[in-house]
């Protein structure tokens, strides 16, 4: 377990042109252990725990070899509390389809059907990233009343929290990262959700589990590895929501789902990211 006093390395990447390079860079950095990202109009600021950093961590980054983009960066050591102050300055509330407000504890409450209070700390999932936003959109129109739900790769717990608010009878929230586990526990309590259980681990925890709905907002490679585990956990007429990948990856994701009797039903796209729904 990482100490709460751990120091972080901040990498400030300047990117020209910004998109789609910024999104691709975040995906590549996440695969190499970077935990948190702040996007701005010049590029991306990325954070990694000092204990996880190795000298060649930026080697073999695809974008650095691509002549279409000009990417420079600088780095410095920051304390965890400095990072928290940074997101507090930049984190703005968001509203999804005029029905769901996602805000920090220091933001004012507004008149919406669902009011979710998130303190992200080092975890992914404030609703600002396209993938989280689209998964929230899916959940807002899905009938979850009385269903058992799994939020795999829960991050801040934001999707599990909305599932609980939408009437799920029980929600399991799982993340492999201890920061995400602790942050989800805190956010679940902060939103007074009584039907969510949070666990630290990976797909190995799913053995002998059954769900009516599974939510997985992770990344392409992990999804492809774990779709079989998700399929084994779904009840008859179960629903699987997947995101964390680009539209170019949709065919590969759908093919893997079809191999496990999961049929594509619909998708949402936002800035080249996709959130797809599959059904048994």
CATH superfamily of the largest domain, by name, is: Vaccinia Virus protein VP39
Rounded mean pLDDT is: 89
Structural class: alpha/beta
> The biggest beta sheet, please?
7 strands, mixed
Helix proportion: 25-40%
Cα distance, first to last residue? Answer: 38 Å
Please state the second-level CATH architecture of the largest domain.
Answer: 3-Layer(aba) Sandwich
Number of domains: 2
> How many beta-strand segments?
14
CATH topology of the largest domain: Rossmann fold
Please state the overall shape, judged from the principal axes of the Cα atoms. Answer: globular
CATH class of the largest domain: Alpha Beta
Order of helices and strands: EHEEEHEEEHEHEHEEHEHEE
Q: Could you tell me the strand content as a percent range? A: 25-35%
Spatial ordering of strands, largest sheet: 10-9-8-11-12-14-13
Contiguous low-pLDDT stretches (5 residues minimum) are none
Specify Rg, calculated over alpha carbons.
18 Å
